[in-house]
């Protein structure tokens, strides 16, 4: 096993996430993911727990033909003024992901309320 494989395995065994490993070893998360899969296949890392919330989420995404993304991906594609608005609007002490999640939840409940109102109008 190459030295970087050993480093990735040790860092994962110590509980480090992909972001930390990526920054520490200066390698992409894609490479880390491949190294982790190889290490699991070789028995150097435990298999991902079947039924874990992360694997359930992955299965759900696959069932809708969707893939995981990241806040960093979003920030790299939006216009600068949108990025600045997002950064200024995110409450201090929280994460951008938490703020985006709150926006999505608000949109969901607004949508549900609109559907209920439409149904009530149809009944009248």
Inertia-based shape: extended
Percent range for helical residues?
Answer: over 70%
Overall average residue pLDDT = 86
Q: List SSEs in N-to-C order.
A: HHHHHHH
Largest sheet: none
Segments where pLDDT lies below 50 for 5+ residues? none
N→C terminal distance: 71 Å
CATH architecture of the largest domain: Orthogonal Bundle
CATH fold-level name of the largest domain: Arc Repressor Mutant, subunit A
User: Count of DSSP helices?
Assistant: 7
Sheet/helix structural class: mainly alpha
Q: Gyration radius, to the nearest Å?
A: 20 Å
Domain count: 2
- How many strand segments? 0
Please state roughly what percent of the residues sit in beta strands, choosing from under 5%, 5-15%, 15-25%, 25-35%, 35-45% or over 45%. under 5%
Please write the CATH class name of the largest domain: Mainly Alpha
Structure description:
- There is one protein chain.
- The chain folds into 2 domains: 3-63, Arc Repressor Mutant, subunit A (Orthogonal Bundle); 71-123.
- It is 71% helix and 0% strand.
- It has helices at residues 3-13, 18-25, 29-41, 53-63, 71-77, 80-89, 96-123.
- The mean pLDDT is 86.
Quick tags:
124 residues; Arc Repressor Mutant, subunit A; mainly alpha
Quick structural overview:
The chain contains seven helices and no strands. With 124 residues, it is mainly alpha-helical. Helix 1 (3-13) crosses helix 3 (29-41).
SSE layout:
Elements: H1 3-13, H2 18-25, H3 29-41, H4 53-63, H5 71-77, H6 80-89, H7 96-123
């Amino acid at each position: 096993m190459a030295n970087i494989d050993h480093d990735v395995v040790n860092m994962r065994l110590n509980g480090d996430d992909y972001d930390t490993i990526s920054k520490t070893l200066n390698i992409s998360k894609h490479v880390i993911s491949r190294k982790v899969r190889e290490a699991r296949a070789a028995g150097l890392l435990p298999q991902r727990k079947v039924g874990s919330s992360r694997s359930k989420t992955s299965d759900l995404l696959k069932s809708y033909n969707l893939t995981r993304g990241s806040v960093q991906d979003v920030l790299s594609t939006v216009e600068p003024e949108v990025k600045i608005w997002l950064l200024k609007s995110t409450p201090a002490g929280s994460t951008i992901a938490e703020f985006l999640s709150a926006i999505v939840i608000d949109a969901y409940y607004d949508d549900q309320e609109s559907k209920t109102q439409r149904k009530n109008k149809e009944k009248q």
